[in-house]
Design goal:
Chain lengths: 578, 209
């Protein structure tokens, strides 16, 4: 064996490797590099908490300081994954409390977190700094009190869009006055009660605070009091942005915002009283990120606001912006990289706003850096999509939701195959795509042929036959996550492409036509997959093998079948005793 | 595969007179049936197949777009397909007031959620619960109390709820609006177990009408 660098040198070299991908590559070079790398890896990302066990992680990486775990499949956000499905963080916390005393950071997404877990976190890691809980659930403000009380060096507490049970509003008082390390606090998901004085005190003794996102409970009139202690903020989320219209409140608010010279991002804006919007005009020109997705404001107030934000890179907004507002956006915000337009009232029979394909086309024309789009609308045409594709070949994430399932091109009444086909053909760097509207197998042929960098694909109410699924599984080389609902995809494509599933993180299929028999077969052929059937009707083996399963979740794993499943989830695995 | 689609569009659509075209992920969780059933009653196969396809109903073809609005709190025109459009529940609250509470039925494996703001009376809520938890729960008005019964096995369920104070109460005691405000979650409890709850006309100070 040729001489190799001494371990110290390699360790030092590896410390420059930022991404997990790079570290993973390096660990494949040879055994000694694997060994050196694993002993000095500080940060682990686990995209599916069931793909590996805590014990395996700890055994391989003994020096970890930061762990990121994701639990439930993405469709859980839309109530497609029943309560009790799983994704419990507790076994991870218990294992890490024993083996990672120096752990500093825990980031979780879509996991179930109990108060006991939070308490354990707060007492097990002396140097604990960062807790991020995105779309999590299962805990209460009591758990948060433990974190506040015990984590002496807490830098970041981000509750994302979690569901937290509010047992008491005084959990904030558990932060000792001596805790001055807070840099980021996001409590925007919390409920209607909060102790304002505790909040104020906390902010006052947090001179390093850069990000503060308040809950709706914090009234507008109190914002100046908070902001005067936190004029160094870079990201700020308001509470409810309305109050009785009074000039003294307005001028205090305006002054407070003016004092925040470093402010780059704003969010919150529940319940907006339009008269108070001009209070933020002083900061608009500096803003790079603006989240108005809860703000029920319309033109002209909305347009006036946005037209002042020339440096905007990211805008989240409701469809009240309408096509006209998007045209104005396209004209004033040339640095725009990300646009999300959410529906204000998707269940109305008639559109309540004039937001059509034209708005998106305008932005694609006017904003050369646009690369991330999430757009809910009620009508679309192939021509518009072709134009968007031609304008923005730099698109990376494109999620379009035409609200009516299977809606065709409203002008030609054709499927939207050609439009999405243009997107995947032109946008060669496309990594994420969500489809909607009327789509035949043809669109999947385009996707399989062109979308070579596509990593995540979401499909609903689309396709005609198994060929559709086959095109995707056989063509999309970079595919990691595939989620499908209400499509006529069955056994053939899945079985023909079984091996593909081991190269992906996960596959979700609900309300499709995959039979129980095919699931069993897949599980037999590919022991490194967990094939989980979610079915409320009772054990699937009580029905004929040809019956379709209701929901299917398949993921690769080195941890074997899990044993924390509720009564309506069955793992089809020869070893699983269920 | 087009026959699959035809099947699903021909499917049972649970329109009821109140315009509550309420589709939820699955229609069945027969109450009273234990979760980990190893040997047990076989489900009627044809029903099962039909319903599991039917649960993927979408409303395009034969669903009429004639809205039936019957004095609901929120006009609901289209059939609400579960999880569509893909908007998180925290965002659904934007325009209309929305109050989702979890509903559990003793013996059924799934929890459901209902939006209390969609109804303006107890009867409408019970109707919705009846729909949610299968065709075999029927409302019985028994001695002027509203109960739900599983007709297949005669098991009676009493709707109960947990209020803001954490107490479990019988549904129906307080004025509707107060109920909506204070209800945290609902549980359809088997009658036999609902004995310890606050009596029908409670003397609690919190329930002053």
């Amino acid at each position: 064996m040729a001489h190799s660098f001494p371990e110290q040198v390699l360790k030092h070299l590896f410390s420059f490797l930022a991404s997990d991908k790079e570290r993973n590559s390096v660990s494949l070079v040879c055994k000694s590099w694997y060994e050196i790398e694993r002993r000095c890896r500080k940060s682990v990302f686990i995209g599916n908490c069931y793909s590996v066990s805590p014990e395996i992680m700890i055994k391989r990486f003994p020096e970890v300081r930061s762990v990121t775990l994701k639990g439930k499949p993405h469709f859980a956000d839309f109530n497609l994954v029943p309560e009790g499905w799983g994704a419990y963080v507790e076994p991870w916390i218990i294992a890490m409390s024993r083996s990672y005393p120096l752990l500093e950071e825990i980031r979780l997404k879509r996991m179930v977190v109990s108060d006991e877990s939070l308490e354990l976190i707060s007492t097990s890691f002396d140097n604990f700094k960062v807790l991020v809980l995105l779309s999590c659930e299962g805990f209460t403000t009591d758990g948060l009190a433990a974190i506040a009380a015990n984590c002496r060096n807490l830098r970041e507490l981000d509750l994302g869009e979690s569901e937290v049970e509010d047992l008491s509003s005084d959990w904030l008082s558990h932060f000792p006055d001596s805790c001055t390390s807070l840099v980021s606090l996001n409590i925007s998901c919390l409920g209607p009660e909060i102790s304002f004085s505790d909040l104020e005190r906390l902010i006052a003794h947090s001179p390093n605070l850069k990000t503060l996102r308040l809950s709706q409970a914090v009234p507008l009139e109190k914002l100046p009091d908070l902001l005067c202690h936190a004029s160094q903020l870079v990201e700020f989320g308001t509470g409810a942005y309305s109050s009785e219209v009074r000039s003294d409140i307005f001028s205090n608010l305006e002054e407070a915002f003016s004092g925040c010279k470093r402010l780059e991002g704003l969010s919150g804006f529940w319940d907006v009283e339009a008269a108070y919007l001009p209070a933020i005009y002083p900061v608009c020109s500096r803003l790079t990120s603006l989240n108005l997705s809860y703000a029920t404001i319309q033109s002209p107030d909305l347009d006036k606001l946005i037209s002042q934000c020339h440096n905007l890179q990211r805008l989240w907004v409701l469809d009240y912006i309408e096509d006209t507002g998007l045209q104005a956006l396209a004209a004033s915000c040339k640095n725009l990289e990300e646009l999300r337009v959410f529906p204000s009232d998707p269940f109305l029979p008639e559109p309540n706003v004039i937001l059509t394909e034209q708005g998106l086309v305008a932005v694609s024309e006017g904003c050369p850096k646009l690369q991330t789009v999430l757009y809910f609308c009620r009508q679309m045409t192939n021509a518009a999509l072709v134009t968007i594709a031609r304008n923005r070949p730099n698109m990376i994430r494109f999620r379009l939701c035409v609200i009516e399932p299977r809606a065709p091109d409203y002008l030609t009444l054709e499927p939207l195959d050609a439009g999405f086909g243009a997107i995947v053909e032109q946008c060669k760097e496309l990594r994420r795509l969500s489809l909607s509207g009327l789509l035949t197998d043809r669109v999947f042929e385009y996707i399989g042929t062109h979308a070579k960098k596509l990593e995540m694909l979401s499909i609903a109410f689309a396709g005609d036959s198994d060929m559709g699924l086959h095109h995707v599984l056989s063509g999309c080389e970079s595919l990691r996550k595939l989620e499908i609902r209400d499509c006529p995809f069955g056994d053939e494509a899945l079985l023909a492409n079984a091996a593909k599933l081991e190269t992906m993180r996960s596959l979700w299929m609900s309300s499709c036509s995959v039979s129980f028999g095919a699931c069993k077969l897949l599980a037999q052929k590919l022991p490194k997959l967990n094939v989980e059937v979610i079915d409320e009707m009772g054990p699937p083996d009580m029905r004929p093998e040809s019956s379709p399963v209701d929901k299917l979740y398949i993921y690769r794993t080195v941890a074997g079948p899990r044993f924390d499943m509720p009564g309506f989830v069955w793992t089809l695995n020869e070893d699983a005793k269920h | 595969m087009s026959s699959e689609r035809a099947k699903s569009t021909n499917h049972l659509r649970e329109t009821d007179n109140s315009g509550l075209n309420y589709e939820t992920e699955l229609t069945l969780g027969l109450p009273g049936e234990s979760r980990k059933q190893i040997s047990g009653t076989k489900r009627r196969t044809s029903d099962v197949t039909e319903l599991s396809l039917g649960s993927s109903n979408n409303c395009k073809d034969d669903h009429s777009k004639n809205e039936i609005s019957t004095g609901r709190a929120k006009p609901l025109a289209k059939t609400q397909v579960v999880g569509w459009p893909p908007v998180r529940s925290s965002r659904k609250n934007v325009i209309e007031k929305c109050k989702y509470v979890k509903v559990a039925v003793d013996g059924a494996p799934y929890l459901r959620k209902v939006d209390l703001e969609m109804y303006d009376s107890y009867l409408k809520l019970l109707n919705a619960l009846q729909k949610l938890f299968t065709n075999c729960l029927t409302i019985c008005n028994f001695q002027s109390e509203s109960k739900l019964m599983d007709l297949t096995n005669g098991v009676e369920y009493v709707p109960t709820y947990e209020d803001k104070d954490g107490d479990w109460m019988l549904v129906g005691d307080v004025p509707w609006k107060m109920f909506v405000d204070t209800c945290k979650r609902i549980r359809l409890m088997k009658s036999s177990e609902a004995v310890g709850l606050a009596p029908r006309t409670p003397v609690k100070s919190s329930s002053t009408s």
